Amino acid sequence: MRRYALSLALVFALIAITACGAWAQAKKMSVMDYYLTLPDDCFYCEIVPDDLSAAFKRKQITKSNIPAGYIEARSEGYSMQVALFTAPGIRLVAINRPCGEGCMCNMFRLLVPQPDGGWKDYEGFPSEGDINAKIGKKARSHEFLLPEVGTDIKIIDPETGKTLLLIGWIGGKFGIK
User: Fold this and answer.
1) By three-state DSSP, how is residue 100 classified?
2) Which end of the chain lies in a sparser environment, N or C, as judged by fewer CB atoms within 10 Å?
3) Cross-strand pairs, 64
4) Whole-angstrom Cα distance, residue 40 to residue 31?
5) Are the C-beta atoms of residues 31 and 71 closer than 8 Å to each other?
6) Cβ proximity of 155 and 166 under 8 Å
């Protein structure tokens, strides 16, 4: 009888562990979940929309590849890219809104979601000085291009579209390749 009770207890423990693991997997947020909860200022530069609801944000989407962690949307007439970067123990959301050289609405942000639903800026990205030093005199200006697939952020020449530099995401950190 005691052996039966022990076996039964082990079976229940395994079921509980499996259920907790499944619950944890189900709780993982997708790029869409993060996109819908991004700070409101990611969706405008100069003109604050009357409605910043999830429905409004969904209407802004022009392309999505949720399994790859990528969304393209519109932000005040500008293109906006959102990409999810993951590594053990870290989830990071990159937001890119290029609008051209000299445009004050250019935005490139890296945000880490917080347990309380807020956001924290990610500090581990190569500096603008490091990027410019590596690019050299190859271009007067540059733009970021988030990956739809993969983990390399491209630094491109906005006039030619030529890739000037890659910044890779490896083991939860960004580095110049």
Assistant:
1) coil
2) N
3) 71
4) 16
5) yes
6) yes
- DSSP-assigned letter for residue 52: -
Alpha carbon distance 54, 32 (integer Å)? 10
Q: How far apart (Å, rounded) are the C-alpha atoms in residues 66 and 83?
A: 9
The burial of 40, by beta-carbon neighbours within 10 Å (0-12 exposed, 13-18 middle, 19 or more buried), is given as exposed
Residue 56, token pair as written in the block: 């409004």
Q: How many residues does the chain have?
A: 177
pLDDT in tens, the chain (177 residues): 555 544 544 444 444 444 333 333 446 899 999 999 999 888 888 878 788 899 989 999 999 999 999 999 988 878 999 999 999 989 999 999 988 777 788 899 999 999 988 999 998 899 888 888 888 865 567 899 999 999 999 999 888 889 999 999 998 899 999
Both structure tokens of 79: 């293109």
**CA 105 – CA 82 distance, rounded (Å):** 16
